[in-house]
């Protein structure tokens, strides 16, 4: 049983894939996936820009809202590529405690 919100949303998004019978006339996600990758890439670009603007303005509520939009559209992209959010969480866990500066230095070593 997938009990995190990201896993539950991913489960739903998988049902919207064209090969799983996703119907663009009843589902926003199926509409995006039917026109993959261009449709969701356009939305990711738009939502990222909206987050940049909200951050510039320092509007707390708007930052939360736009980040949710961006994360959601990233989940749609992952669904298209058959990548589960758990893989992203595992990658973040792998990086936990490793300073970005340290990691960058190790690349040039
Ligand atoms: N979390 C979301 C979610 N967040 C945002 N959105 C939609 O993403 C779109 C964001 O686009 P904008 O804010 O730019 O609004 P817009 O201008 O109307 O959008 P466009 O027509 O330009 O694409 C809106 O239509 C939102 O409703 C979402 N749509 C769906 N979900 C999840 O996905 C599930 C499946 O959705 P359907 O496939 O539509 O049933 C839902 O049950 C939710 O859990």
From TrEMBL:
Keywords in alphabetical order: Amino-acid biosynthesis, ATP-binding, Cytoplasm, Histidine biosynthesis, Hydrolase, Nucleotide-binding
Top class in the EC scheme: hydrolase
Pathway membership: Amino-acid biosynthesis; L-histidine biosynthesis; L-histidine from 5-phospho-alpha-D-ribose 1-diphosphate: step 2/9
GO biological process, one term: L-histidine biosynthetic process
EC number: 3.6.1.31
Signal sequence range: none
Pfam families membership: PRA-PH
The keyword Ligase is annotated on this UniProt entry: no
Record flagged with keyword Nucleotide-binding: yes
SUPFAM superfamilies xrefs: all-alpha NTP pyrophosphatases (SSF101386)
GO MF term set: ATP binding; phosphoribosyl-ATP diphosphatase activity
Reactions accelerated catalytically: 1-(5-phospho-beta-D-ribosyl)-ATP + H2O = 1-(5-phospho-beta-D-ribosyl)-5'-AMP + diphosphate + H(+)
Domain of life (superkingdom): Bacteria
GO CC annotations on file: cytoplasm
Location(s), subcellular: Cytoplasm
Family recorded in the similarity comment: Belongs to the PRA-PH family.
Protein name: Phosphoribosyl-ATP pyrophosphatase
Source species of the chain: Corticimicrobacter populi
Name of the gene encoding the protein in the UniProt record: hisE
């Amino acid at each position: 049983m997938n009990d995190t919100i990201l896993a539950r949303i991913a489960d739903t998004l998988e049902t919207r894939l064209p090969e799983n019978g996703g119907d663009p006339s009843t589902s926003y996600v199926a509409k995006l996936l039917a026109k993959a990758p261009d449709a969701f890439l356009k939305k990711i670009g738009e939502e990222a820009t909206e987050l940049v603007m909200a951050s510039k303005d320092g509007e707390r509520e708007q930052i939360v809202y736009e980040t949710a939009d961006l994360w959601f559209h990233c989940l749609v992209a992952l669904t298209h590529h058959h990548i589960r959010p758990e893989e992203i969480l595992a990658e973040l866990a792998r990086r936990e405690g490793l300073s970005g500066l340290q990691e960058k230095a190790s690349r040039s070593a």
